[in-house]
């Protein structure tokens, strides 16, 4: 797998990853912006409105018909939060040239993606009013539907409470009360501003010659008048922490418990890899401390796991439990962490966890989406390590480093969603 | 090696290999060169639907508690020496299992030590170890799993739609059973189910990745039990007589959701197919659903612009020998109005006919999607085993898809979408 990174214009980069392993090729354009309350709802609206219609394809039915002609190429958009950055993604994924009867399929896909991002349908020089209003309503439904998935909801609520005074608490899809301020005029203005100021990363995974891809990108995408925004690094070190407990009540059958920890270990820190291994020992897989104790030994939960959120350096533990087992589960989880701080874990757990992490790193190259996201994360964290380098840094982790890393973590928020 | 048979697809540029063990177990392999991940799935043709059957070596049919196939899946991970998860973890691999209506599957994915992992997979699936104590302990865990699904509105709206469509067929019951039904499960019944359904002639072992197939076969032969068992095990499964008609037109429930969720189900009157006939019916119906309800239709466009549906709207056909149905689902503030529009549209299409251009585009799309799906090892493995148990083949899919013509679609449209075989299931906000 060969990768070329090239600056296309001020703040615009092209990453071409060449591989002939796949039958599919992927073109992803990422817009990276600072996460802040006043922009987040506007940002989220942009891809929603853009995929409704373009200059050449006036509505989403026309767009979809074109995609179907291109052998079912899929257009997808996403809005995510990576630390305190807001990332909008526009992707098109479709069969590679040697599998379909078309030798222009790459350029055809590129054309439609370009038309969606850069040539929106305009009425009187602004977005189409109906589309904006319909997408406002859709986004409103989307934001209110966060209660539908109770596990995710518990995680989202924990983050909200834990980072009350930090940008990280901002919900990636924005806020219902801000939707009222949005109209076709100010949203279009926001769009023009975003095109000018966002950091743009174009990631392409394809079997075509890199040279051919570079030429197509340069022919079709022209960038001028760039004024890139400065993307700030998140604050991740917090030593004075007061533990708090938040309890919400809702009509649910099972209680959802989430524990939010500040790790105090930035991804640049040499203890970061040790922390990843420690987290895995604690709650990574079915051989983890939490799984064995909370689930297998005490039958308290069906699921219990611990996850690391890289950019903001936090760790969240989640479990689904009976309402009256809140104290028990909390006690067992805290005990397990205490034991880890004291070094109560064996070499076998370390080896198993390292292997599991290494396995998942090795398989990044088996999936076009993972490849694209991996290169994006390198860019976002200014990390030039390739997969081999990352694997090496996991291999080097020892017990002392894990103990040191786990001793840095601090419990910030305990969240429990229970019945009314 | 002798006795390895091959199927090749020039369109997909893929190949599959088959080797049948002396005991009747079929081992399949699809090579994926250059991939780091290797994947194996050991599956038995036994799922939540198989609740009534004649146990091996007996003459009388028995009825077992709902959720037992899934319970058995959980329990197979337990060995006398401890938990098998740990053995896979030592190798850095990922092990899991799933139970659906028609199969129970055990799988692992890894990058290293493939043959050692394979040995573990074969031996743990072949070594049941149930005690009163470990069976009872599992009830607490599974009860939590059942409760987790009860909080899942998508799952609820789906199972309610099955309950509205079917009178007696076990497909309407939850795969994991109920908190009540699992309390009735004991180790004796578990062994009975195990011995009947985990018979090599009722199972498939499928491998995919950058693997040496001959070496894999040798590993399996060395570790498999009942090496020479050559008895064909014809399992007698009993399914209730299911009327062709739906049970209830409408079903609703309230949960903590923001806007209503709905499933519109069309119960298939035309059941009993197997093999390529069944596969063809599946493909034809999925093309049809896309032509009627897909994102490139006027119906979708109008309902979306009116605010009746959002992009969670979608449709899918599920095919099996003893039951099949289409489900059209999504979120809507007014599910009844969506149903009216859907029926109105079907009536309209009955008058004006389907559009051939739509058919050609959708067919193109499905060809592309099928080709692209071969980039996923999980997809290859899971759908390969699914189709084998239905006596067809993933490798026939593209040929059947290409051979489908407009008349096939028109014919199916008339038989599947009739005015009396649909139901509406709704989850309302509390």
UniProtKB/TrEMBL annotation, chain B:
Question: Ranges for the Peptidase M16 C-terminal domain?
Answer: 184-366
InterPro entries associated with the record? Metalloenz_LuxS/M16, MPP/UQCRC_Complex, Pept_M16_N, Peptidase_M16_C
Give the residues annotated as coiled coil. none
Specify the superkingdom. Bacteria
In the record, what terms sit under GO molecular function? metal ion binding
Question: Where is each Peptidase M16 N-terminal domain found?
Answer: 64-178
Q: Name one Pfam family in it.
A: Peptidase_M16_C
The protein depicted here goes by the name Insulinase family protein
> What is the scientific name of the source organism?
Senegalia massiliensis
Where is the organism placed in the taxonomic lineage, from the top? Bacteria, Bacillati, Bacillota, Clostridia, Eubacteriales
